[in-house]
Design brief:
Distance between the termini: 39 Å
Number of strands: 31
Shape: globular
Number of domains: 1
CATH class: Mainly Beta
Radius of gyration: 23 Å
CATH superfamily: Single-stranded right-handed beta-helix, Pectin lyase-like
Length: 486
């Protein structure tokens, strides 16, 4: 049961030695699940340079500048790129004269071979005018109940596109919409499910970056702030790289009368393959990373997560998720740590997952492998009885070299006797764990060294524990791993 994990540990040691020598490559060792050779991206040469005409006030704009949109000249530079530039070159957003350091834009679309480069000290602000995002007619975006969908702020439907630079893209999700007394986040909170309306109220707000059919899409060093909805959603893409990205939402903690960000997932790939998220920092209002259905061959390497719902899969898994490596993750006060969530209306086969070298602290539910998902921030520990034909099935999951510095709940559950969850625990420690924090059901668990009270928690819950007689729990060291958000 534990031979594969031992072989993978050897691969990790080899790869970490390579990184220590200064060679920044992620896929040359056998352990990476992305089948590409992924190396640190490079900032390309500039072909078109646009200079800012607006000066921000701190991290906001003057009300008078809200009418000075740069949408047309940004889109014109992108549209004219193919005629004068080489694929892979950049449209650069640069500082201008007299302290000008900001661009204001409505939605725009990146084209094949174009890299959008946002310079250090420059902020690209998204328009607060909901009419700019209308798709199906005037007055359809920014409504509750929803009257129609919204355009994303940045749309990508082309190959070999990049978004790079040391500047900021600010979605302004917490700022009041023009002509309204509510923000994008306020609409989302108004639509939240309650006991009186379990399904909530449909509302419409835009994603920050929407990517589809965009093989070779790369994000490098860019900072993303305050998306109205998901920050980055990617689908039907072969080859997606995130490296050194900084995502913080909200930038300012909401006051007592301000709405909190809701459904502001960090990075959400779905129906895609060959994905690497590396050396990034994510602090947001929902799942830090949420892997949706149809994802295969994904590597999540050396990242830091802060507020948010953790490293998630689901809730949609109906077409399957497979072949994932999460290595070198620090989770600091996320609500969940390792989270796999689905239910019988949207589930499918999730298999061949490895999570290793992970440090957590202040995490409410460090392990949540659940077929019980019920649209809640934290999984319930009891089967809610949701019926359907899309049954969650979780197989070949290894959790190795994982330390949680503070106690939290552990949920490992299968759906029924024909869909048991299979998990292998190798050198996993949750400090201060007690029996009342253990929630096991319909699972086959390999004990390769853990301080979890598995045998007692398994009693009466149709759980089989297989122990490696030579294994002992040796806490993975988290010294120096918890760093301030960057």
């Amino acid at each position: 049961m534990f031979l594969n994990a031992m072989n993978e540990r050897a691969g990790v040691r080899t790869m970490r030695a390579v990184l220590a020598c200064g060679v920044v490559a992620l896929a040359s060792a056998a352990w990476a699940q992305d089948t590409r050779v992924v190396t640190e991206p490079k900032i390309p040469a500039t072909c078109v340079k646009l200079e800012a005409k607006i000066a921000s006030v701190g991290d906001t704009l003057k009300e008078a500048d809200e009418a000075s949109a740069d949408t047309a000249r940004i889109q014109a530079a992108i549209d004219g790129f193919a005629a004068t530039c080489k694929p892979g070159q950049a449209v650069e957003l640069a500082a201008g004269a007299k302290g000008a350091n900001a661009f204001l834009s409505g939605p725009f679309e990146l084209k094949e071979g174009v890299t959008l480069l946002v310079d250090k000290g420059v902020t690209l602000f998204a328009s607060r005018n909901p009419a700019d995002y209308d798709v199906s007619g005037p007055g359809t975006c920014g409504t509750i109940p929803s009257k129609g969908p919204c355009k994303a702020f940045i749309t990508v439907r082309a190959k070999n596109v990049g978004i790079m630079g040391d500047g900021v893209i600010d979605g302004r999700g917490g700022a009041k919409l023009l002509g309204q007394n509510v923000s994008w986040w306020g609409l989302a909170v108004q639509g939240e499910p309650t006991d009186a309306r379990p399904a909530g109220i449909p509302y419409s707000d835009p994603r920050l970056i929407s990517v589809s059919n965009a093989d070779g899409f790369t994000m490098y060093r860019i900072t993303l702030h305050d998306s109205p909805n998901f920050h980055v959603g990617v689908s039907r893409t072969d080859g997606f790289t995130v490296w050194g990205v900084h995502l913080k939402t909200p930038v300012h903690e909401p006051g007592p009368n301000d709405p909190r960000p809701r459904n502001t997932d960090g990075i959400d790939p779905g129906s895609s393959t060959n994905i690497t998220i590396a050396h990034s920092w994510i602090d947001n209002g929902d799942d830090n990373v949420a892997i949706k259905t149809g994802v295969t061959h994904m590597s999540v390497i050396d990242n830091h997560f802060y507020s948010g719902h953790g490293m998630s899969i689901g809730s949609e898994t109906n077409t399957g998720v497979s072949t994932l490596l999460v290595d070198g993750l620090t989770e600091d006060h996320t609500t969940s740590g390792i989270r796999i969530k689905s239910n019988a209306t949207r589930g499918g086969l999730v298999e061949n997952l490895t999570y290793k070298n992970i440090c957590m602290r202040g995490v409410g539910v460090p392990i949540a492998i659940s077929p019980y998902y019920n649209d809640q921030t934290i999984e319930g520990f009891v089967d809610p009885g949701i019926k359907g034909t899309r049954i969650p099935e979780y197989k070949s999951i290894t959790l190795e070299n994982i330390t949680d510095e503070t106690p939290g709940d552990v949920l490992i559950a299968g759906y029924d006797a024909d869909h048991r969850t299979q998990v292998n625990l190798v050198n996993l420690t949750i400090k201060g764990i007690t029996l009342d924090k253990m929630h096991l059901k319909l699972a086959d668990i390999g004990n390769g060294g853990t301080n979890l009270p598995l045998e007692k928690a398994a009693e009466g819950n149709d759980v089989k524990v297989t122990a490696d007689g030579k294994a002992t729990a040796k806490p993975y060291s988290c010294e120096g791993k918890f760093l301030p958000m960057r």
